[in-house]
Write a structure and sequence with these properties.
single chain; alpha+beta; 5 helices; globular
């Protein structure tokens, strides 16, 4: 589905063919996110694990979202109605993927988020 009129950007809802495009947009967009850079302080770690974190947070393949289809300048994902995120699985992934010295603090942080 696309929308737009005149000079307005074209917004396209995500389908399976858009996965790599949206992943590239979001990976680039979150490079300066303080939380993600604290979790993954090394660029290599961030690039290695961001896709997995996104899959655990949004589901895979994520299909509930949209992006600007001209120039890949932005994307947004949202929870699909009726679907619940598996927070246990997401935490297991997160704790396996972050530096060992951050694991206990990360667990406490995400427990606080959950409240």
């Amino acid at each position: 589905m696309q929308s737009g009129d005149g000079d307005a950007p074209s917004i396209k809802t995500i389908d399976l063919q858009d996965h790599s495009r949206v992943l590239a947009i979001l990976t680039t967009a979150f490079t300066m996110c303080p939380l993600l850079r604290w979790l993954y302080p090394e660029p290599r770690e961030y690039l290695q694990h961001f896709n997995g974190l996104l899959k655990h947070h949004c589901g895979s393949p994520y299909s509930s979202g949209a992006y600007l289809s001209e120039g890949d300048k932005g994307a947004i994902l949202w929870d699909t109605a009726g679907e619940k995120r598996d927070n246990t699985s997401m935490m297991e992934f997160l704790l396996k993927s972050i530096p060992a010295h951050r694991r206990s603090e990360t667990e406490r942080l995400f427990e606080t988020f959950g409240k």
